[in-house]
Specification:
mainly alpha, 64% helix, LRR_variant, ARM-type_fold
């Protein structure tokens, strides 16, 4: 028993010696070793070498205390690893939402720990690209969805209109004041028949063009759109694989040569 205790003491002393070695390679080997105990990893998390701290930051077994330390690291790559780490605390993720480097902030939005509290912090961020990344999350809190629907970024609202499965959000976005946003809603296959009917009569050719190439429509709307005042709408209708044959026959008689050419293409 005494020998075992002595061996443990010697092993610990060796670890401490290596952790404070002047040789970076020695300390790096410890940082990368899966068997290195937590107390040594905690010491290496404040190592003067950026290389060592980066090696620590990508470990999968880090404690929240160590991650908290690394979240304030001067090195962007270290903080980026913390922002992506699934064990990083909510508090640290919220702090990293305000990080000066965009790549660190963007990692937060992809973190599995990005819960509704972190999402709200992201919604309040001036970083449009960071807010944009929330659009692709499937676990958005209802109030976060509402905030994104009201976001100042047209590009964000347009992408949300295309991606969202939230019926309330889709209804609001399909009636957005900006045509690009309504066009996003027009290509969302979750729109209702009534929403499609309204979009088929939209004042913007951009919206109607998006609609005809993305979703199935009622016969009345198909007939109207095949004779749409916009060449662009008719051209996209002639191009769309979902356009029924009898509508394509109408487009083959179109007054515009480019529309006729598309409608007559044998690949359709």
């Amino acid at each position: 028993m005494r020998n075992t205790d002595n061996e443990a003491v010697v092993h610990q002393e060796n670890l401490l010696r290596d952790a404070t070695s002047k040789r970076v390679a020695t300390r790096l080997a410890l940082a990368e070793d899966r068997k290195t105990p937590p107390e040594i990893i905690a010491r290496l998390a404040v190592d003067p070498s950026t290389r060592i701290r980066r090696a620590v930051a990508v470990r999968s077994d880090l404690t929240r205390t160590v991650l908290n330390t690394l979240a304030s690291d001067d090195d962007r790559n270290v903080r980026e690893a913390v922002a992506a780490h699934p064990a990083t605390s909510r508090e640290d993720l919220i702090r990293l939402v305000g990080d000066p480097h965009p790549h660190v902030r963007w990692k937060v939005a992809d973190n599995p720990g990005c819960d509704e509290h972190v999402q709200r912090a992201i919604c309040a961020s001036p970083d449009e690209d960071l807010r944009f990344k929330l659009v692709y999350r499937k676990d958005l809190a209802p109030d976060v969805v509402a905030a994104l629907v009201a976001d100042s970024s047209v590009n964000l609202r347009s992408e949300l209109a295309f991606e969202t499965a939230d019926s309330v959000a889709l209804a609001t976005l399909s009636a957005d004041s900006v045509a690009k946003v309504r066009a996003g809603a027009a290509i969302n296959t979750r729109t209702t028949a009534e929403q499609r009917r309204v979009l088929a009569r939209d004042r913007s050719a951009l919206v109607r063009s998006a609609l005809v190439r993305a979703v199935t429509l009622e016969e009345e709307d198909l007939q109207r759109l095949a004779r749409d005042r916009s060449v662009e709408v008719r051209w996209w209708m002639a191009t769309a694989l979902i356009t029924p044959r009898h509508i394509r026959d109408i487009l083959r008689q179109d007054p515009d040569a480019s529309v006729r050419s598309q409608a007559e293409d044998p690949s359709y």
